[in-house]
Amino acid sequence: MLEAKAVTKQFSDLGLIKKLIMTQFPRNERVPIRMLLWKAKASKSSTVDFLAFYAGDLFVGFTYMFTNDDITFVAFLAVDSTIQSKGYGSQILKYVKTLYPNNRIVLGIESLDESADNYKQRVKRKEFYIKNGYESAGFKIKALGAEFEMLITGGDGSISSDECLAFYGRNIYGAFLHRIFKIFIRVTTINK
To answer: Greater confidence, 68 or 97?
Structure first.
């Protein structure tokens, strides 16, 4: 069973989280850890959960989530690559569901683009989430140079692209930055 610990500026394993951000996410998706900490502390429109997970003394990974009303958006979830495929990611997803049992839990994964260098990894990632009860929300969002297929679990199992965009605006970017970045966000409908 994993133990979750809140991540703050004084958290002793910030270096391990930073390493995961640098190694597990493409450059355009990386967010400086100081920005994550600031957003977690400063957010007024939502609850931000910045959590590190441990199996005993072993650092497993982290998640970073925004919750507003009945929507929880998992912005980051990473498990140390040296211990992947041991069930830790599934345990983290179960923990998120226990934290927000009545919520629609939404996340974005890199779209399945056969020309991408990491196509096989993208397929494996989608299979992982499907195995853990997620399904396609029926649309992709393109933002900041990347395209993400939105997946959902919980609640009634649906979210509209408008709800998702509004959630991005209120919670992830904040009102000011959302107005600036909104022109870069595009929605594409896909078949489930």
So the answer is: 97
